[in-house]
Design goal:
194 residues; alpha/beta; Rossmann fold; seven-stranded mixed sheet; 21% strand; globular
């Protein structure tokens, strides 16, 4: 088991994007920061907002890139390199079109699946890091994807996403300790009726 050292939430900076679906990764990391009393502050050399603190006894860094989604690598890669963090010690939380709002999945390795944040990170780091995929649902046609990810969820979707984020935060102890298989079971089995 390899404990996590870095948890990244992907999203877009700026007030106009705060409540949009593409910022689901930001929402997860912001919850961790709040729940575990980790102060987040701007860090120019990493082009992001960062913090460091204890999550269930593990020393963990949090990162929210402020580069815009399609340039996420410009934030994540310098931080990973600066602190010598291995891919097995990284969790990247991001919105996921391929699963419905109210679903979450924990995955290790794999392609970028068309996600622009992952697409910008994987050429530099490879793909064998952990991902927390936060479902936002698909609008039905690829021509509608951009508008979908950059708009706010409906009230019902927001409630569903919040419940999924709660389940992910509930798995934080398993995640940070590196018990990824147990965390995966907990997260991937989450259903809204729980």
């Amino acid at each position: 088991m390899t404990p996590l050292k870095l948890i990244v939430g992907l999203g877009n900076p700026g007030q106009q994007y705060v409540q949009t679906r593409h910022n689901a990764g930001f929402w997860f990391v912001a919850r961790l920061a709040e729940d575990f009393g980790i102060t987040l502050a701007a860090e120019k050399k990493f082009h992001g907002v960062t913090g460091r603190g204890q999550i269930y006894g593990q020393d963990v860094r949090l990162l929210l890139p402020t580069t815009f989604m399609n340039k996420s690598g410009q934030s994540v890669v310098p931080m990973v390199n600066f602190y010598g963090i291995d891919n097995a010690e990284i969790l990247i939380a991001h919105d996921e079109l391929d699963i419905p709002a109210g679903s979450i999945k924990l995955k290790t390795a794999g392609g970028h699946g068309g996600h622009n944040g992952l697409r910008d990170i994987t050429p530099h780091l490879g793909s064998d890091f952990h991902r927390l995929r936060i479902g936002i649902g698909h609008p039905g046609h690829k021509s509608k994807v951009s508008a979908h990810v950059l708009s706010k969820p409906s009230m019902d979707e927001q409630i569903a996403i919040e419940a999924a984020l709660d389940a992910a935060v509930d798995a934080a102890q398993l995640l940070v300790s590196g018990d990824i298989e147990k965390a995966r079971q907990h997260i991937n089995s989450f259903k809204l009726s729980d």
